[in-house]
């Protein structure tokens, strides 16, 4: 017999608890709760499948930690001891993230193998590793990530975001983590639940935060709740396989069709990723409790929500409200891979009126509009800077755009260094923007050592980090020769400066309309001012600095913070071709 959640806590703000009991013909049983002070049995609910039973409890404010005794009477009598635990009182747990953080995103299977003993796990559908195959598992794990905390800190990183670590027991391409087969279990090829909790604790002790990557919209087709469904309506089903149209515009199109809306929300993300029906109250509660459980179990600091727009809009509001009420310090940001600033802002807290009853309560999103704008500016000669300006100008749509997460690329996109033609000066410009614009910056693993390749297939951009595996000929954790070292040092120096100068994270932002291929903005406070000026052309540009007088008045000179070069004249700035300066202004 299995019970989800596996255990719970006293003292939760929401006293209601839904237990999903799974076992052969358990639904034909009657269930009772032995007397326990502060806990009441609200009811037992049968579902379509006889292999499930739903038990609804209230955990009152006076309930103490201990063991609940559940009794089941059917063809035979069963007793189950259910643990109620005390909540953690550690103030360092669930710290949340701010703009002062710098997130490092990585794919655990491809980052570092710290425990070869879990490379092959008996009983899993993929029980081998093959590093020469882009779709096979390569052996990276939680221990491998933890072994390199010093590397993250040297780079200037303050938070780690691994792609999903929960079980993905799929027969193909299970390494990526987005086809969950058990939402309550760390994949045994990465480690155990206890090891993950220890990983979060160790990260906190080392001054690092942890973001957990989660999927609300779909599960893997080998999820135990799909293989043995509690009821048919736990998933969206069609007469034949029906894929999502991947078009979120259908959600708020005032002239849109119901068919397009339904296809987007209810269609499957892929053939092996059944779409979960969050309109079913039992499913919605199951999901909400699952993600409350991980936070209280581990003390993690944030959730990155995969494919955020694809979930039921009403469920998203209920989920976000429940998470925020229980863990107000937890950071939430979602993937909203959309085509316009307005469509992206629709999925974050915004100033827009409700549409079809949906008003997003998600604090922030991954800022694809900034990513697209940086890419468009740098991937061609004399690229257009106006998109970057306009993407920031559209911040008026958000309640607080500083809660967005900035990035250059990720595991679904071509690596940025390849996109910009392996131009090192353009790389430095992109890093300068990433680490000085508003929002929380995020770097995809290997960008700092110029890892490259194009997606399609995606596996090309998910290669192993050099040095993370036994037998690697190059080890970038310990030695970074040539331009890889220059790249690492540039990121590290600027990230370190950013950490020491809050003006780059919490200061105000003022941008000037790009002119003649030069884009200039300032981060400033009452005590500090940093000018970021980027020449995006193949020629040196002489810039009239008096145009920026409202920010430079009172300052006579500056220093470029990475190179240390002095800038003696703020009124006439000669900026070399394809160069970005981050200039600390001096009085």
Topology:
Elements (H helix, E strand, L loop, with lengths): L1 E3 L3 E2 L6 E7 L7 E4 L5 E8 L5 E8 L6 E8 L3 E9 L17 E4 L1 H4 L30 H5 L2 H7 L3 E4 L3 E2 L14 E5 L6 H13 L3 E7 L8 H4 L21 H4 L5 H9 L14 H18 L3 E5 L6 H14 L4 E4 L6 H6 L17 E2 L2 H11 L7 H8 L11 E2 L9 H4 L4 H11 L5 E5 L37 H19 L2 H4 L1 E8 L2 E7 L4 E7 L5 E4 L4 H4 L4 E4 L5 E2 L4 E4 L3 E8 L1
Parallel strand pairs: 2-8, 9-10, 9-18, 10-13, 13-14, 14-15, 15-16, 17-18
Antiparallel strand pairs: 1-3, 3-6, 4-7, 5-6, 7-8, 11-12, 19-20, 20-21, 21-26, 22-25, 23-24, 23-26
GO molecular function: hydrolase activity
Keywords: Glycosidase, Hydrolase
InterPro entries: Cyc-maltodext_N, Cyclo-malto-dextrinase_C, GH, GH13_cat_dom, Glyco_hydro_b, Ig-like_fold, Ig_E-set
Low-pLDDT ranges: none
**Beta-strand content:** 15-25%
Distance between the termini: 71 Å
Q: Which term fits the overall shape?
A: globular
- Strand tally: 26
Largest sheet: 8 strands, parallel
Please state the structural category: alpha/beta
- In helices, the fraction of residues equals 10-25%
* Strand order in space, largest sheet: 16-15-14-13-10-9-18-17
Individual helix count: 17
Keywords: Glycosidase, Hydrolase
Protein name: Glycoside hydrolase family 13 protein
GO molecular function: hydrolase activity
Domain Glycosyl hydrolase family 13 catalytic: 105-498
Write up this protein.
- With 587 residues, the chain is an alpha/beta fold.
- The chain contains 17 helices and 26 strands.
- The strands form six sheets. An eight-stranded parallel beta sheet has the order 16-15-14-13-10-9-18-17. A six-stranded antiparallel beta sheet has the order 19-20-21-26-23-24.
- The model has no long low-confidence stretch (mean pLDDT 97).
């Amino acid at each position: 017999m299995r019970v989800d959640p596996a255990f719970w806590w006293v003292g939760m703000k929401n006293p209601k608890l839904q237990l999903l009991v799974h076992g052969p013909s358990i639904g034909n049983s009657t269930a009772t709760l032995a007397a326990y002070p502060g806990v009441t049995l609200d009811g037992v609910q049968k579902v379509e499948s006889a292999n499930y039973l739903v038990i609804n409890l209230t955990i009152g404010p006076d309930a103490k930690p201990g063991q609940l005794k559940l009794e089941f009477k059917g063809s035979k009598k069963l007793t189950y001891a259910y643990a109620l635990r005390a909540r953690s009182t550690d103030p360092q747990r669930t710290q949340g993230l701010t703009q002062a953080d710098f997130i490092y995103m990585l794919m655990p299977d491809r980052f570092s193998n710290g425990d070869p003993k879990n490379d092959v796990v008996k009983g899993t559908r993929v029980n081998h590793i093959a590093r020469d195959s882009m779709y096979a598992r390569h052996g990276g794990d939680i221990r491998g990530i933890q072994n390199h905390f010093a590397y993250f800190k040297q780079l200037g990183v303050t938070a780690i975001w691994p792609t999903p670590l929960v079980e993905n027991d799929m027969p193909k391409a299970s390494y990526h983590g987005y086809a969950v087969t058990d939402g309550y279990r760390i994949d045994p090829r990465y480690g155990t639940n206890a090891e993950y909790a220890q990983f979060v604790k160790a990260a906190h002790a080392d001054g690092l935060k942890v973001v957990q990557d989660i999927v609300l919209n779909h599960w893997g087709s080998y999820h135990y709740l799909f293989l043995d469904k509690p009821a048919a309506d736990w998933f969206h089903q069609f007469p034949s396989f029906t894929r999502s149209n991947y078009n979120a515009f259908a959600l708020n199109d005032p002239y849109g069709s119901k068919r397009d809306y339904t296809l987007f929300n209810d269609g499957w993300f892929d053939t092996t990723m059944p779409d979960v029906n969050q309109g079913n109250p039992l499913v919605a509660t199951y999901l909400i409790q699952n993600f409350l459980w991980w936070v209280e179990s581990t003390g993690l600091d944030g959730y990155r929500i995969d494919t955020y727009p694809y979930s039921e809009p009403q469920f998203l509001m209920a989920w976000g409200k429940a998470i925020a009420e229980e863990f107000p310090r937890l950071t939430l940001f979602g993937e909203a891979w959309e085509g316009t600033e307005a469509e992206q802002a629709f999925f974050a807290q915004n100033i827009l009126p409700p549409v079809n009853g949906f008003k997003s309560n998600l604090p922030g999103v991954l800022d694809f509009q900034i990513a697209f704008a940086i890419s468009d500016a740098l991937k061609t000669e004399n690229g257009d800077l106006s998109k970057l300006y306009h993407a920031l100008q559209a911040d008026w749509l958000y309640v607080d755009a500083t809660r967005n997460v900035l990035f250059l690329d990720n595991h679904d996109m071509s690596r940025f260094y390849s996109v910009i033609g392996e131009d090192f000066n353009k790389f430095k410009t992109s890093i300068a923007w990433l680490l000085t614009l508003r929002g929380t910056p995020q770097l995809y693993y290997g960008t700092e050592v110029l890892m490259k390749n194009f997606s399609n297939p995606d596996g090309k951009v998910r290669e192993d980090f050099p040095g993370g595996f036994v037998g690697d000929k190059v080890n970038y954790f310990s030695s970074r020769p040539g331009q890889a070292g220059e790249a690492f040092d540039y990121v590290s120096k600027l990230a370190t400066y950013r950490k020491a100068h809050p003006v780059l994270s919490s200061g105000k932002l003022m941008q000037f309309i790009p002119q003649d291929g030069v884009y200039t903005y300032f981060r400033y406070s009452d005590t500090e001012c940093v000018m970021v000026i980027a020449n995006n052309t193949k020629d040196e540009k002489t810039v009239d600095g008096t145009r920026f007088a409202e920010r430079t008045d009172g300052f006579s000179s500056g220093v470029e913070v990475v190179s240390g070069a002095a800038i003696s004249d703020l009124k006439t700035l000669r900026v070399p071709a394809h160069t970005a300066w981050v200039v600390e202004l001096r009085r």
